[in-house]
Amino acid sequence: MDNKPLTEKLRPLLLENVVGHIENLKILKTWIEKFKSEEFQFPNMLFYGPPGTGKTSTAKAFAREILGESYPLGLLELNASNERKLEVVRGRIKEFASCAPMVGINLVILDEVENMTADAMAALRRIMEIYNQTTRFILITNEVDSIIEPIQSRCAPFMFGKLDDVVMENYMKNIALSEGIDLQPDTIPILVKYADGKPRDALNVLSKLIGQDGNPITKSVLEKIVLTSSGTAWEAIYTNVFINPLSSDKKIVSLIEERGINPKEIIERILGFLILDEKIPDKIKTTMLIKLAEFDYRLAMRGTPRIQLRCLVWSFCNVGKEYYAKKQE
Q1: CB of 106 closer than 8 Å to CB of 74
Q2: By residue range, what is the domain housing residue 252?
Q3: pLDDT tens-digit profile of 198-218?
Q4: Are residues 170 and 149 part of one domain?
Q5: Are strands 106-111 and 135-141 parallel, antiparallel or unpaired?
């Protein structure tokens, strides 16, 4: 029995298994055909878009098809969140790029490039220039504006947006069928809304539905699972920003450092709750929105995510402290 989570068990091995992104896949498949017939040498690539939309899965599938039997020996895969320093670029990446390729090209997949330091990005750009004859890079990022322009200009850009509801609905129905998950018809819209166009989020919640003793998954059951998975936790973070900021502070650090949640997603979630919060007066809400925009800008300017979001929590706390104190009198 395969006990792997669905995100790993169902990670596509080939491009034809990737869900959505038809135009991107068409280009990549054409490049593979031309590369194997020695008609074409594909460029470096920059995959960008929201987290969970299939960027890394597509990059790995492309690498597997390009390298064939040399996979994964002809591939260097790094996560820039962990390998973000200049020494890694000058060491591991340069050493790999300088090796003679096994099948005509070396491939480097570098995930979460936005987390690299400025010096590391500058060194990476130089390596991309020097080893252009032997190595190709697939750079993956959630925030394309965080990548320096000299690197962007050396890559073919591929946008990976959220999938539309019809694609997501068919995708989840097929997964449920193949995994023996008995979904009631009225549960599909809830799943589609929760996944928000991200296949990874859909697989995460479907993983929790496996092994429900063969019982049909009803709307009420699914709503409880979805709330437990995300909604309640996010709402608690937002609420505690005002009444128990230390709790929100610790939770946000945990989300970033232990679960690898993108800082931008945390800001988007807080923004969503703030906009819908009818209890906060417009004057105070406007101040908070300005604060939120300020910290979003700081992240875009490569501020340390953990520090910036912790400062946001306490900034919100100070703004809302007087209002909540009066409310509780």
Answers
A1: yes
A2: 231-327
A3: 898 888 888 878 766 667 888
A4: no
A5: parallel
